[in-house]
Design a protein that fits this description.
Oligomer: single chain
Largest sheet: 6 strands, mixed
Shape: elongated
């Protein structure tokens, strides 16, 4: 936009070595003269948009160009007299942005909105005028790209502009397509800005716009933006990378010969394919150099194989792995498992007899179009909508291209309390470069949750239950109980367990394991509103709580050794009618173990004297039980009450400090009848929050 207009010749990106092959560049001076001359005929397209029309017709041969003519005339008239900082007529900027989108294959509505994207912000044209002339969709997109007034928002204008734009993108992804093209042209022409302003714009581009381009799959824009940011923020590394590429240009490149070999192999196999050598862009070469050290000729590019059908991709892969030596660790199948940004391809690497290793990408032509242009290649997401349906400007439009990360972002931004929080959390969210899908316990197609890679059960809880997740006490992942801090993997099935106590709240340590902004904002808000509870959850670990009663000895066990003291082993806590074994230990005492206890083998191995033991006829017994539970208020009282209802005496009890919201209890109990042990254990398991009870 106007604040970022500068001289195209002053920026390093204008140099030939950084231009993308096959990507045209506008001659802004020629374009400015054509814009000022205007059309020579009412029915003829203005000369200034001839290049846009040509690029548009290449992708959409039957497109109606009359609406582009009308949009250009309105834009040129409204911007007339405005100049960019480079001295060019301002109309050259929307024309350049529109050309970028036309080359990517954007449909006519997107190009129309692109021509008009600065009119409402920088001229006297109103949204009502745009709506009356071009319809609701163009008006919606132009409004989505328009910045909020700085006079109204002050320092918060930039975060609030992005918030507004992202909400609009949730209803129409074409809004962000125009913003990305707008930023690309401004980055190309950033040279006359002050260095500090260049750096500020480049950092926002790096932290927000480039991740958004990646997530929307618009690789053609993302890679060029990366190179432009690289040149501004890391000039020394940029220059060294440029020198590295320049030095390689003077050497013999092995990739064309390898590409010829691939063509020959596929031709002999009867597979119709187009084989290209794709040079790496600057940032890619820099990353490879940091990873591999000294680069070889084949590291400066990759081989791209384009075919007609999905099945042909796997046929190509088979021939490559048969006729060359495959590098198995480099194989990735993004056709069977596409990336979350729509990307599909087969990636592999093969070694040649000369010792070169060439990376190969195999995809269909349609996959290639989507890989380059992302959501732009999908055309109009509302083309199948009923044309007669009245548009309700207040109703959220359902976008079939809306990915899970965008829905998640739109959800949490409503809870962001202030622009600074929104801005910082947005950058953190966009830093997540992968996404996983987990399934709810019902296993239905609609029961999926999209989360960033590395997300935990805490994130799944807030994604599914919102603020009700404050009472989450645990989870089952793939049927197994686990702590809330457990990380999730793609394809996991998650069952979240909520406390019945409405006053339950999250622990402060949940923030250490929450990855999604929605979870972090909700947890932080709860802790801020409950400072006493927050301090309690972060207090130092306490010593285990013990309740000790009268301790007995051997219970009902009797040893065949006169006057010997009998003790029940604490490792296995035998009770009648368990099969038991006794061993003589120091002090003349006999310890009694269950026959399958691991200690029995150890006693025999060290030569302990075996002593026969049996149970008295009386039914009472002593046993130690371990109870595993999720932490919650009043849990100890509820467990003790459940034990008392069974008529059992607590000899001793130990409660360990909570670890990741889980608590371990140890009870030594005196039962009036050993037959009541199963019922006692069932009663303890029925206490809310208790997920396991077992004998020690």
């Amino acid at each position: 936009m106007s604040a970022e207009a500068t001289n195209p010749e002053a920026h390093p990106e204008a140099r030939p070595e950084l231009r993308r092959r096959g990507r045209t560049r506008l001659d802004l001076r020629r374009l400015g003269r054509a814009a000022l001359l205007g059309p020579t005929s009412r029915d003829r397209l203005p000369d200034a948009i001839g290049h846009v029309a040509e690029a548009h017709r290449a992708h959409h041969p039957d497109a109606d160009l009359s609406v582009l003519r009308r949009a250009y005339l309105l834009a040129e008239t409204s911007h007339r007299g405005q100049m960019r900082k480079s001295g060019e007529p301002y109309i050259t900027h929307p024309l350049a942005v529109t050309l970028i989108l036309a080359e990517l294959g954007a449909e006519t509505t997107t190009l129309t909105a692109s021509l008009l994207h600065d009119t409402v912000e920088d001229t006297d044209v109103t949204l009502d005028q745009v709506r009356a002339e071009f319809g609701d969709e163009v008006c919606f997109i132009v409004d989505g790209v328009t910045k909020v007034e700085k006079i109204d928002y002050g320092a918060a204008a930039e975060p609030e502009t992005f918030r507004k734009m992202l909400v609009a993108t949730g209803n129409d992804v074409r809004v962000m397509s125009i913003k990305l093209a707008d930023r690309l042209h401004n980055m190309r022409t950033l040279g006359v800005m002050r260095p500090e302003k260049q750096a500020r714009i480049a950092k926002v581009t790096r932290d927000v716009l480039i991740p958004l381009a990646e997530r929307l799959g618009v690789q053609a824009l993302k890679t060029e933006l990366e190179d432009l940011v690289f040149a501004i923020l890391h000039p020394e590394e940029y220059e060294s990378t440029r020198a590295l590429i320049a030095a390689h240009a003077g050497e013999s490149d092995p990739l064309p010969a390898i590409a010829d070999s691939v063509r020959a192999v596929l031709r002999d196999a009867g597979i119709a394919a187009e084989v290209q050598v794709r040079p790496r862009h600057f940032v890619s070469v820099h990353r490879i150099a940091r990873t591999r050290g000294e680069l070889r000729g084949s590291d400066f590019g990759r081989i791209l194989v384009l075919v007609g059908e999905n099945a042909d991709c796997y046929a190509v892969l088979g021939e490559l792995h048969t006729c060359f030596t495959p590098v198995i660790s480099e194989f990735k199948d993004f056709i069977a498992t596409p990336k979350f940004n729509l990307y599909q391809s087969l990636h592999t690497a093969v070694a040649t007899p000369e010792g070169y290793v060439a990376e190969v990408i195999v995809r269909t032509r349609q996959m290639h179009r989507v890989a380059e242009a992302g959501v732009v290649a999908l055309g109009n997401p509302y083309a199948t909508a009923t044309p007669d349906a009245a548009a309700d400007p207040d109703e959220e439009r359902v976008d079939p291209t809306r990915p899970g990360w965008l829905s998640r972002l739109l959800d949490w931004q409503q809870s962001a309390p202030d622009p600074d929080t929104f801005w910082s959390v947005l950058r953190a969210e966009l830093a997540q470069d992968r996404e996983i899908t987990v399934f709810r316990e019902d296993g239905s197609a609609t029961g999926t949750i999209s989360l960033p890679a590395g997300a935990s059960c805490i994130d799944a809880a807030y994604a599914q239950h919102g603020e009700a997740a404050h009472g989450c006490i645990g989870a089952r992942v793939n049927g197994r109980l686990t702590s809330l801090s457990s990380p999730l993997s793609d394809g996991d099935t998650v069952q979240l367990l909520l406390a019945q106590d409405a006053s339950s709240g999250p622990a402060a340590e949940w923030l250490d394991h929450a990855k999604t902004p929605a979870a972090r904002i909700a947890i932080s808000s709860w802790l801020d509103s409950h400072p006493d509870r927050a301090m309690a959850t972060t207090s130092a670990a306490r010593a285990p709580l013990s309740v000790i009663g009268a301790r007995g000895g051997g219970g009902n066990a009797v040893a065949d050794l006169p006057d010997a003291t009998v003790r029940l082993a604490g490792c296995c806590t035998p009770v009648p009618p368990d099969a038991v074994a006794g061993f003589l230990v120091r002090g003349g005492a006999v310890t009694v173990h269950r026959i399958h206890c691991a200690a029995v083998a150890q006693m025999r191995a060290v030569g302990r004297t075996s002593v026969a033991v049996h149970w008295r006829a009386t039914a009472d017994c002593r046993v130690t039980l371990l109870a595993e539970s999720f932490g919650r208020p009043h849990l100890l009282a509820d467990l003790t009450e459940a034990i008392a209802r069974e008529g059992v005496e607590v000899v001793s009890a130990t409660v360990e400090p909570p670890v990741e919201q889980r608590v371990r209890h140890s009870y030594t109990l005196q039962l009036p009848d050993a037959a009541g042990l199963p019922a006692l254990m069932r009663a303890m398991r029925d206490v809310p929050g208790v997920y396991d009870v077992r004998r020690a």
